[in-house]
Design brief:
By secondary structure, the protein is an alpha/beta fold. The chain has helices at residues 2-12, 19-25, 42-48, 52-62, 84-98, 130-145, 161-173, 176-181, 183-200, 203-216, 220-244, 261-270, 302-317, 331-343, 377-395, 402-419, 431-435, 442-456, 476-494, 499-518, 528-549; strands at residues 37-40, 68-74, 77-82, 111-115, 149-153, 274-277, 280-283, 291-294, 321-324, 352-354, 360-362, 365-366, 427-428.
Length: 557
């Protein structure tokens, strides 16, 4: 709707402002009494040397459109009141016709590669990994909705000095039988023990560096241990991903790029970008510390592997964009990485985007695997599902498929609790908050959808050529919100912000429940078909919103 209004205003201006410029200036008034859309004239007043009130009056006198009921000039604002019946007919007809495709960009936009989740091998999948995993998956879904082909890559932490530490720890304290029985738990135990012992005996760190160098050089025993650690970890990770409903196109972790780094280092040398610094090699950068490429012993680093990964992805997938869904603490690393590629002369460096996010905190502090202070995601999901099942047993004991619904609700609660916050915010871990199924939660949205399904199963769903009768003034905010869904989908992708979808779903659920409390949906009167059409459209968009977030929508709860 904003696009049509912007077009109409542009005609009044004789195209002195572009449609995009006008659309960017449009605002949503604080209350519906001030209109449905507002156009502020203060920016124009400075440019055109006229009062904003005068400009607003001119626009108000000339602005006409079939979708506009009336226009008022108030204090430098153009307040626009839409034709409610016409807009309602237009929005609901579109959703009834397009169903879950409403808001989908049908034009192929190319590929988007998303690097997300990326847990470390031989370490448990903790709550600290949840954020990258669910934000990345939601962004992949949103990219697809925007017309892109999303390529999901799990850049496993399956290389680096941590494996030197783990190999040394295994030799000193490892029990093969215990590790076989409970791999991740036992590997974490000896990893934590390594760090405790290394505080008293610094030579352990030297042994770890030597062990990792041996691994890089292809030592058979070291490689066999590494492969074992990797295999048992992936089995556990897949259990988590299956529960979360997340699939990947590739599990190409850091080790995958071992034979691809030499070419990058050689190119850096050939382009005279590699500089020696105290025996190590770095690339000097503008306005930030140099990027370390190889250490004094010749061992490669995180940056070297990420450079190799970026070149491989660009050549292999030829994407329009590459998103790195990695925490805030890695911001400098990605700035360095992107600038190195830019200095190498590759324009596609502009297609690389770091999508940072805040930390999952416990008691105000970052969770640490090294110190053994972790909350396992598997435990949280298990407790969430158990809580959901308990609620079902209390409120709807005869519900079919209780186990399946409990899983959908419990897992949905954990995912939604993360995604409802802007990704840059830190989140304090609270099992009580996740399990609170009232208010701003995933189960609240799921329950609203299930309530709509129970209504709709009792009636015949209208076709897309429904003739709408008056729905009542409480329906108008719902219509305005439904109309905005395609714009929210676009903005969520442009800002890489799934919380916009979560907040939209919460607002839509709240408005529908308010409407439900004030109207008898199934009352046998002239407006019944219109109310059913409204409920059906809201159900479609609630389900689609949850789907974009990676959350299932049970029809019964």
């Amino acid at each position: 709707m904003n696009k049509q209004i912007a077009n109409s205003i542009a005609e009044v201006f004789n195209q002195q402002l572009s449609v995009d410029e006008i659309e960017h200036l449009l605002e949503k008034p604080r209350t519906l009494e001030l209109g449905d859309v507002a156009f502020p004239c203060f920016t124009l007043a400075k440019t055109w040397k006229r009062s904003p009130q005068s400009i607003a009056a001119d626009i108000a006198n000339q602005l006409k459109s079939d979708d506009i009921q009336r226009v008022e000039a108030v204090g430098g604002y153009v307040n626009i009141f839409l034709n409610q019946q016409q807009v309602t007919q237009h929005v609901l007809s579109n959703i009834l016709h397009e169903k879950h495709l409403y808001g989908t960009n049908q034009t192929a936009m190319g590929r988007v590669v998303l690097d997300f989740s990326s847990p470390n091998i031989a370490k448990p999948f903790s709550m600290g990994h949840l954020r990258s995993t669910v934000i990345g998956n939601a962004l992949a879904n949103i990219a697809t909705k925007n017309g892109y082909q999303a390529i999901r890559i799990n850049h496993l932490g399956d290389w680096g000095t941590q494996f030197g530490k783990l190999i040394v720890a295994y030799h000193y304290w490892g029990d093969k039988q215990a590790i076989t029985a409970s791999p991740i738990e036992e590997l974490l135990k000896i990893y934590v023990k390594f760090h405790e012992k290394a505080e008293q005996d610094p030579t352990l760190n030297e042994q770890a560096r030597a062990a990792f160098k041996a691994l890089e050089d292809g030592d058979e025993e070291a490689l066999a241990l590494w492969q074992w650690f990797r295999d048992v970890s992936l089995v556990e990770f897949q259990t988590i991903y299956q529960l979360l409903g997340i699939d990947f196109d590739a599990f190409t972790g850091e080790a995958f790029y071992n034979d691809k780094m030499t070419a990058v280092v050689t190119e850096l040398k050939d382009k005279e970008l590699l500089v020696e610094s105290d025996g190590a090699y770095v690339v000097e950068l503008d306005n930030m510390p140099p990027c370390l490429i190889t250490k004094t012993d010749g061992a490669t680093l995180y940056a070297t592997r990420d450079l190799a990964a970026a070149f491989y992805r660009q050549q292999h997938y030829q994407p329009e964009k590459i998103f790195y869904v990695v925490g805030n603490e890695q911001s400098l690393h990605f700035k360095q990485l992107f600038q190195v590629i830019d200095k190498m002369g590759y324009a596609w460096a502009n297609h690389l985007h770091h999508v940072p996010f805040g930390m999952m905190l416990k008691d105000g502090k970052k969770m640490s695997t090294r110190k053994g202070k972790v909350v396992l995601l598997a435990d949280v999901l298990k407790e969430a599902i158990a809580t959901a099942k308990h609620n079902i047993e209390e409120k709807n004991p005869h519900l079919p498929n209780k186990e399946q619904v409990a899983q959908q609700v419990g897992v949905g609660a954990v995912i939604f609790n993360d995604l409802k916050y802007h990704r840059q915010n830190d989140i304090e871990f609270s099992i009580e908050q996740m399990m609170n199924f009232e208010g701003e939660t995933g189960p609240y949205v799921q329950y609203t959808y299930a309530r709509l399904c129970s209504i709709l199963e009792k009636v015949e769903v209208p076709s897309h050529d429904v003739t709408l009768e008056a729905l009542g003034e409480q329906a108008w905010p719902i219509i305005l919100l439904l109309e905005q869904f395609p714009n929210v989908v676009v903005t969520a992708f442009e800002q890489a912000d799934p919380s916009l979808i979560a907040k939209f779903a919460l607002q839509l659920a709240r408005l529908l429940n308010k409407y439900y409390a004030q109207h008898k949906i199934l009352a046998d009167d002239a407006q019944q078909t219109s109310r059913i059409a409204l409920c059906y459209c809201v159900a479609i968009i609630l389900k689609e919103s949850l789907t974009l977030l990676g959350i299932e929508s049970p029809a019964n709860m």
